[in-house]
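Sat 14:20. Reprocessing the chain from the morning session after the first attempt stalled halfway. Input below, unchanged.
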Amino acid sequence: MVKLADFTEWAANVGYEMPTELHSLLDKSQPDQERDRKQEPMKVNPYPDKPLDPREQNSLLKIIAALCEKAGVSADQDGLDKELEKITETLGVLITARVIKKHLRKAAELVK
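Finished this time. Tokens:
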């Protein structure tokens, strides 16, 4: 089983970010040392020479959609992209609202 903290860190590293509501779940589920680890700067892409396989990308998008569902938010919710942009900046892995919106839209389309 994959820990939520590990998944969100990995997702951020490959350019995907979780909705704000998932961060609150993450904070509640983590022991203090894992929470402290989350504050460390993350590597943006640990595998820069390895492109994402389309099946892997679709799987990630479906996971994002499932996590949105669990958190009670819609991947196409107004303002979610800007909120996530602020979070990624805080994490030290800035992803623009435009890029976030593009990926959230793809995630929402895959589960319709």
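The helical segments are 4-13, 20-29, 32-38, 54-71, 80-91, 97-110.
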